[in-house]
Design goal:
Belongs to the pirin family. The protein is mainly beta and 252 residues long. It has one helix and 22 strands. The two termini are 16 Å apart.
């Protein structure tokens, strides 16, 4: 099967600059609404956020979704109603199952440098989960010229991944120029070679990324990859002058 690839250009995403927060939205979020970009399967939110020093998101509530932050640079302090207090840095992935309801705050405690991170929401199969919190660290050495497996279905979770309560995988890579990685589309949790979908997001930190047929992503771009089944191979190649850091989602 030949994959269908549709570009999501960075400049076409939702955008807001609140002074303390510079944010881009891949899907409809807050004041940004586009009927064509509301979700992609269970993937509901990809926000690329830059929060200024001594600023942040005050205490607010969530329920239903599984919410995770991928830290690109800076320091993000997390506090929540479960008693968790943690300072997150580059390489950290902080994961919250909001379930029946939690409240939390996310704050840049650094007095000089902004914090840059991806905020991602996924809709689990059960929205009434018991709230839970988890953090794992994925240093650059695990991701350089490699696809690091970060999130997997809870039923398939191992010591290296964070478990999520739906058929969803997340990978991350930092590709040096002229390097490639191949991703094998995951098996569906229900078994068999069922149709799946991928979404790839290239962070705005630099580099360029080529997918399979020559579709090229520039910083901040994303791409929808459909018409693939488990076992298919998708190739990602760094073709810019700088390293290309990207996240890849593989979902039912």
């Amino acid at each position: 099967m030949v994959a269908k690839i549709v570009l999501r250009p960075s400049e076409e995403r939702g955008y807001a600059n609140h002074g303390w927060l510079d944010t881009h939205h891949t899907f409809s979020f807050a004041d940004y609404y586009d009927i064509n970009y509301q979700s992609f399967g269970t993937l509901r939110v990809i926000n690329e956020d830059i929060v200024q020093p001594n600023e942040g998101f005050g205490t607010h509530s969530h329920r239903g979704y599984e919410i995770f932050s991928y830290i690109i640079s800076g320091e993000l302090q997390h506090k929540d109603s479960m008693g968790n207090v943690e300072i997150l840095k580059r390489g950290d992935v902080q994961f919250t199952s909001a379930g029946t309801g939690i409240s939390h705050s996310e704050y840049n405690i650094n007095k000089i440098h902004p914090v840059h991170f991806l905020q991602i929401w996924v809709s689990p199969d059960d929205k009434n989960l018991t709230p839970a919190y988890n953090t794992k660290t994925y240093p650059d050495c695990l991701k350089t010229n490699n696809l690091a497996h970060i999130i997997s279905p809870a039923s398939e979770q191992d010591s290296k991944t964070i478990g999520i309560h739906t058929d969803f995988h997340m990978f991350s890579s930092i590709l040096q120029p002229e390097n490639k990685v191949a991703h094998t589309v995951q098996k569906s949790s229900s078994g068999g070679d069922q149709a799946r979908r991928l979404y790839v997001h290239l962070t705005s930190t630099g580099g360029q990324l080529k997918i399979n047929d020559g579709t090229i992503l520039k910083p901040g771009d994303g791409a929808f990859v459909t018409e693939v089944v488990s076992g298919d191979e998708v190739i990602f190649e760094s073709i810019g002058e700088g390293a290309a850091e990207f996240v890849l989602f593989d979902l039912a």
